[in-house]
Each structure stands twice: as structure tokens, then as C-alpha cells.
Specification:
This protein is 64% helix and 5% strand. By secondary structure, the chain is mostly helical. The protein has a single domain, classed as Preprotein translocase SecY subunit (Orthogonal Bundle), CATH 1.10.3370.10. A 3-stranded antiparallel sheet has the order 2-1-5, with helices on one face. A two-stranded antiparallel ribbon has the order 3-4. Helix 1 runs antiparallel to helix 5 and helix 9 packs across helix 12.
Length: 447
Amino acid sequence: MNLPEVAGPIEKKLDFKTKLKWTLITLSCFFILANVPLYGLASNALARFEYLSIILGTEFGSIISLGIGPIVMASIILQLLVGSKILNINLSDPEGKKYFQGMQKILAILFCLFEAIVYVVMRGLEAMPGMAFIMIFQLFIGGILIIFMDEVISKWGFGSGVSLFIAAGVGWHLFAGAFGFIGAEGQIAAVGKLWVLISSIAMGDTVSATAAAVAVIATILVFLVVVYTQSIKVEVPLSLGRIRGFSIKWPLNFFYTSNIPVILTAALLANIQLLAKLAESKFGATILGQFSPEGVPISGLASWLSSPPLLESIIRGSFQYAYIWQSLVYMLFMIGGSILFAVFWVKTSGMDAANQARQISASGLQIPGFRQDPRVLEAILNRYIMPLTVMGGAAVGLLASAADLLGALVRGTGLLLAVMIIYKLYEDISQQHAYDMYPALKKIIAK
């Protein structure tokens, strides 16, 4: 299928400087677009979209208000269709993978148009009189730009655009949450938790000081736990049959599917809450949920699938027993959703034992003491890959929900995503730097 796309590089492996250049250029474009307001936007309560903006890697009210939502939703739907065999696409075949990517791009473009219409028609982003069509057009163009910027990063930069945009948005919200000094009315005020901590101690307000300190400590704690668990891995010894004495270790990380499961789970949750908000603005309170003027869900499905201020309510003396059940449902949803998407991702992205075994065998590698047979490799890898997939998916869901309940500086899901994305980006940059320093290493890996 002939679709507009970003041309890939001619070279098989790009050098470090080229990747860094295109990553920084695309990231700069993202921040510029995030500060371009929508023309014709009426007065909106954009604060209610704060959670969505973190998860979807966007800034609501800007031309890229759709963020990565269309890309992620297209990915979720196609993975479900392929995983359930409704669509029979062989992703191990280059043509099948190309067809899948083309289908995903078409679906993402359609979601750009659909979500733009939904936002404007249901007054999520309310347009001034007579400006609805212009608003929809701007949102659609912004969504298309995000799709192509994601392609630029995937082909010319480090990692993926989806991950990079999330990390950039979370980093901005984390900085504002810690050091923000501009209040809701535009006045200078102690908004960031560090300033709140200092001012509360100065005024003798122990409750506010404790709440601010807990938020800072929870953020640091989650950061340290994620960095530690990122380093946990199972290493499978491999040897190269044609070179005597040559051996390497094939690492299988504890977070085998990285941050993908929690991205997809959080995006699904964000879209449920968005649908509930739009339904309330159009039809009033529905089974999907009802929201307070500040945008906090107070009833319905949206309430049960949101994290209550558990620890802060205990500190401030506003604890309710309903928070326990709400926390449990939220945590189970995050863990279950992450496990489900982790398994789907492994099955549909070529990370399963069969594909990994074929890849290892094609490189001429084998496990010492076993014959060079993909079936043997698959049997051994099966002992590790699926358990790591399930445990890693459950762990990222648990960490994300726990950070939310502890009241970190940004939403736990966003903080978890940012740490994992930056850690993975660091690994990619280190690997690329090693390739540039030792070109022979690149040739060995390429084989």
C-alpha cells in the first residue's frame, strides 16, 4: 500500500551524531508545537485533562492535543485483532510486518480524525461559535505531525517517538511539580512541592510539610526501585560454533517487554476517563462516571478506575474506607491490564521464544552443550521468556499503581514510564557509542 512515510536511512546503522541530531530536532519541534495554542479555542477547563496529557504525551489546548493517543489506540486494536487471530498476519515475515505497519498507520490517521471530531463535538475542547471545523482541522493536522515525528525518531533517532514524547511531557510535569512557582491565577506562589515543604516548615504547618515531604520521598523511592529492577536480568550463555572460544551472554531483562504494557494499559485507562468526561459534558452523569468541578471522578466506572489520594488522606485526616476498595480495584486493573498487554506484545512483536530462537540460530550462535537447532533454543528460551513476560508485566503495573497511591510528584504511571524510557534511551545511546568507538563490534553484531 502506498502511504506517505518518512524515508529511512540508506545506511544499515546510523552513527551516534546523526541519531542525536534528529532526536534533538524532533524533540524541539515537539515542545514548539506543544506551545502553539489552538485557534478558535473557547474558555476550557483544561486542568481536568492533566492526567491525560501526561499519559498521552501532549499539552491540551495546543495543536498537538491528540498526542500519541491515535498511535496507541491503533496499536491496541491491531494487537487485539492479530492476537485473537481475527486478522491473520504473519509478523515474522517481512511482508507481513510491512502490511501490519501500513494498517497501523491507516488506523492511526483515522483515529486522528475521529478523536478530533469527538473532542470538538462533545466539547472536550470547546470551539468558539463557527470555529468547530477549523478546530477539528487543526487537531487532525497536529495528530498527523505526531505520527510523522514518531517515524522520524524510529528511523533516524534513538528509541521511539511515542516513548520520547511521554518522557518529555513527564519530565516537564515533574519539574513543575517540584519547582513550580506560578499559581493558577498567574501569580507568584509556592506551588512546587519543594517550595511547599520549605514554606510549611517556616510557618510551622506540620501537616502540609509532611504531605509535601512524602510526595518527594515517594518519587525518589519509585525512581530507585525502577532503576534497580531494570538491572535484573537472566543471561543465556551463547557460543559461536565457527569460532572456538568465543562466547557471549544473551540478556533477558526482568521487564522483558519494557514499558509497553503499562503504556497501553494507561492509554486505555486514559481513554475510558476521557470518554466518561465527554459523555458527562454531553449527556450528564452516566454509568461511565461523574466528575467534580476540579475534574476528579466521584462516581461510576471512572471513579473505580482512578487512584484515590490514599496516603495524603491519611496524613490530612480525610481518609475514607471506600478508598481501600477503590485502591484495590485500581491496582488490580493496572496489574491485570499490564500482564494482558505484555503477553499480546510478545506474541505480536516477534519477541516470543520461537522468533528469538530463529534470530539466534540465524546469527550462528548456539547454547554450549546443545546442537545448533532452533527447536532446542526455543525449548530452552520458553523456560524464561513467558515467565518474565508475566512477572515483568505484573511488576510494572504494581509499581505504577503503587506510585499513584503514594502520591508521587507526577502520576505514578507517568513517573514509571519516564524512568524506564530514559534508562532504555541511556542503553541505546551507550550501545551506539560503543559501535562508533569499536566498528568491528558492529560487524559482529550485524552477523
